[in-house]
C-alpha cells in the first residue's frame, strides 16, 4: 500500500520509462504476474492471475495503465497472448521482444542437426558402451602399460563428461562437444598406436579405443549431422555476436541496451552472416531462408522505433530473475523446495517488497522514511480486507468450504434431500454453510 502511493509520482518523474511484463507459474498456485521498470529495476505492479490468458493479462494491464499512464516502450517475451493483450490496452505504445527468447527459437532452426547427432551417437548404446568400457580400466598406475590404460579411461571419461550439462539447448550443444572430443581422441589414439608400433610397446586397449571411436564417428547417422552441425554452430555463434548476445548463460545479467544508432549496423551484420552460411549449400540455404523469414516477421518488435528513446532495451531476463529470487527466498525461509503455496498466497506481495532492495527507488522515495510509521499509517480496515483476500487472489471461484469440511457438507445435503420432512429451513442453512462471507453478509 505504501508503494502504491509512492510509485506513480516517482515514475512520472523518470521521463521516458520502459516496462517489462512477465508471469511466473508454479505448480499448485496462480500465476504471479509482474510489471517492472526496466532501467531502474522497480516493480510497478504485481497481481495474481487465474491463468496467463488474454482476459487476465488485459485486466492486469488496464490496472497498470490506470496507475501509471503510458510507458515509452513495453517489453515482453514471444507470447502471442502478451502481444495481443498489450496491443489492446496500449495500442499507441511500441512493443519490444526479448532477444534471448527470440534467439532460442532461431537456435532450434539453425541447430536442427543437434538432435539428429544425439540420436546417432546414442543409437545401439554407442556412447553407453564406451562409458561402460572405461569402468574396467585402472584409475592410477606406475608402469607404461598401466598408465596407457589410465589414459584410455581418462579419455573415455572426458568424452562422457561432455554430456553432464545436456540441458540448456540451444545455448549449450553437448552432443556436438561429444563428437568433437571423439574426433580429438581418435587423433590422439592413432598417435599412440603409431608410437607403440615404433617402440614395439603398448597395450591393446589403445587400439580398441581407436577402433570403437572410429566406428562411432563413421556411422552415417553421425557423420552427416556432425559435419552440418559444425558449420551451423559457427553460424550460430556469428549470429549471436552480431546481435551482441555472446554470453552462454541467459540468467546471469541482463543484455546491455543497443544504441539506436547501432541497429542498422547490427542488421547488416546479421544479413552478412546469412550470406556466408547460405554459401555452404542448399541445406544451409533452406535453413537460413526460415531464419530470415522469422527475422522479418519480428523486425518491428526486435528493433522498435521509439521516439524519445535513444537506445533499444531488449531483454526481460532481469524480471525473470526477480521471480526466481522470490522463490529462492521462500525456500530459504521455509526450508521446503515447493514454493507453490507461498507464491499463490504472497507472490504479488513479494514482488512489491522487492522494491525495498531497489537502490534507486529506496534512494529517491524511501530515504528518510520511517517504514514502521509508514506502515502504521495505512488504513487498518483496508489492510484487513487485503489480508483476508490473499488466499483467494488469482484462484478460480470455488465453493467456499473450510478445509476438511467438504465431505461433511456433501453428506449433509444428501441426507437433507432424502429426508421425509420439509426442506426448509435445512436448505437455507446448508446454502449458508457453503456461501462466501460476502454472500452471507448480504
What features would you describe in this structure?
The chain is an alpha/beta fold. The chain folds into 3 domains: 2-97 and 316-392, Nucleotidyltransferase, domain 5, CATH 3.30.420; 99-298, no CATH class; 406-441, no CATH class. The chain has 20 helices and 7 strands. It has helices at residues 2-12, 54-68, 80-89, 99-110, 113-122, 126-134, 144-161, 174-199, 204-217, 220-242, 263-278, 282-302, 317-334, 340-353, 359-366, 371-376, 380-389, 406-417, 426-433, 437-441; strands at residues 18-25, 31-37, 43-49, 73-76, 95-97, 258-259, 311-312. A hairpin with a 5-residue loop joins strand 2 (31-37) and strand 3 (43-49). Helix 11 runs antiparallel to helix 12 and helix 18 (406-417) runs antiparallel to helix 19. The longest helix is centred in the middle third of the chain and has 26 residues, at 174-199. The chain is extended, with a radius of gyration of 30 Å. The relative contact order is 0.13.
Radius of gyration in whole Å, from Cα? 30 Å
Mean pLDDT: 89
Count the E strands. Answer: 7
* Number of domains as seen in the coordinates: 3
Relevant terms:
442 residues, alpha/beta, Nucleotidyltransferase, domain 5, five-stranded mixed beta sheet, two-stranded antiparallel sheet, 60% helix, extended, disordered C terminus
Brief synopsis:
With 442 residues, this protein is α/β, with parallel strands linked by helices.
List the helices and strands and how they pair.
Layout: H1 2-12, E1 18-25, E2 31-37, E3 43-49, H2 54-68, E4 73-76, H3 80-89, E5 95-97, H4 99-110, H5 113-122, H6 126-134, H7 144-161, H8 174-199, H9 204-217, H10 220-242, E6 258-259, H11 263-278, H12 282-302, E7 311-312, H13 317-334, H14 340-353, H15 359-366, H16 371-376, H17 380-389, H18 406-417, H19 426-433, H20 437-441
Parallel strand pairs: 1-4, 4-5
Antiparallel strand pairs: 1-2, 2-3, 6-7
Helix pairs in contact: 2-3, 4-12, 5-10, 6-7, 7-8, 8-9, 10-11, 11-12, 13-14, 18-19
Amino acid at each position: 500500500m505504501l508503494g502504491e502511493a509512492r510509485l506513480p509520482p516517482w515514475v512520472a518523474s523518470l521521463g521516458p520509462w520502459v516496462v517489462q511484463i512477465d508471469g511466473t507459474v508454479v505448480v499448485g498456485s496462480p500465476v504471479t504476474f509482474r510489471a517492472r521498470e526496466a532501467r531502474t529495476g522497480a516493480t510497478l505492479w504485481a497481481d495474481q492471475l487465474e491463468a496467463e490468458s488474454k482476459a487476465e493479462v488485459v485486466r492486469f494491464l488496464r490496472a497498470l495503465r490506470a496507475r501509471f499512464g503510458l510507458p515509452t516502450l513495453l517489453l515482453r517475451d514471444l507470447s502471442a497472448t502478451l502481444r495481443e493483450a498489450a496491443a489492446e490496452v496500449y495500442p499507441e505504445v511500441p512493443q519490444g521482444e526479448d532477444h534471448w527468447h527470440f534467439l532460442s527459437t532461431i537456435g532450434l532452426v539453425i541447430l536442427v542437426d543437434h538432435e539428429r547427432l544425439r540420436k546417432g551417437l546414442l543409437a545401439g548404446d554407442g556412447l553407453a558402451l564406451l562409458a561402460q568400457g572405461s569402468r574396467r580400466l585402472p584409475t592410477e598406475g606406475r608402469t607404461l602399460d598401466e598408465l596407457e590404460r589410465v589414459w584410455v579411461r581418462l579419455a573415455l571419461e572426458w568424452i562422457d563428461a561432455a554430456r553432464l550439462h545436456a540441458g540448456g539447448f540451444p545455448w549449450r550443444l553437448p552432443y556436438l562437444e561429444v563428437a568433437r572430443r571423439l574426433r580429438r581422441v581418435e587423433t590422439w589414439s592413432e598417435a599412440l598406436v603409431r608410437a607403440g608400433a615404433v617402440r614395439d610397446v603398448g597395450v591393446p586397449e589403445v587400439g580398441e579405443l581407436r577402433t570403437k571411436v572410429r566406428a562411432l564417428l563413421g556411422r552415417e547417422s553421425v557423420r552427416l549431422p556432425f559435419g552440418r552441425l559444425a558449420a551451423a554452430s559457427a553460424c550460430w555463434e556469428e549470429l549471436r555476436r552480431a546481435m551482441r548476445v555472446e554470453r552462454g548463460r541467459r540468467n546471469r545479467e541482463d543484455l546491455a541496451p543497443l544504441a539506436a544508432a547501432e541497429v542498422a549496423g547490427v542488421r547488416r551484420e546479421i544479413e552478412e552472416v546469412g550470406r556466408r552460411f547460405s554459401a555452404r549449400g542448399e541445406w544451409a540455404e533452406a535453413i537460413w531462408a526460415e531464419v530470415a523469414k522469422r527475422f522479418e516477421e519480428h523486425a518491428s518488435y526486435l528493433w522498435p522505433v521509439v521516439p524519445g528513446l535513444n537506445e533499444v532495451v531488449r531483454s526481460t531476463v532481469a524480471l525473470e530473475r526477480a521471480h526466481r529470487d522470490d522463490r529462492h527466498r521462500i525456500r530459504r525461509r521455509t526450508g521446503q523446495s515447493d514454493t507453490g503455496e507461498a507464491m499463490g498466497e504472497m507472490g504479488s506481495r513479494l514482488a512489491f517488497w522487492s522494491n525495498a532492495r531497489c537502490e534507486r527507488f529506496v534512494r529517491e522515495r524511501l530515504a528518510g522514511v520511517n517504514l514502521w510509521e509508514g506502515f502504521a499509517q495505512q488504513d487498518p480496515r483496508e489492510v484487513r480486507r487485503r489480508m483476508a483476500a490473499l488466499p483467494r487472489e488469482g484462484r478460480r471461484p470455488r465453493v467456499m468450504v473450510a478445509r476438511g469440511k467438504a465431505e461433511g457438507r456433501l453428506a449433509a445435503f444428501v441426507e437433507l434431500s432424502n429426508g421425509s420432512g420439509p426442506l426448509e429451513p435445512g436448505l437455507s442453512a446448508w446454502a449458508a454453510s457453503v456461501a462466501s462471507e460476502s454472500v452471507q453478509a448480504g
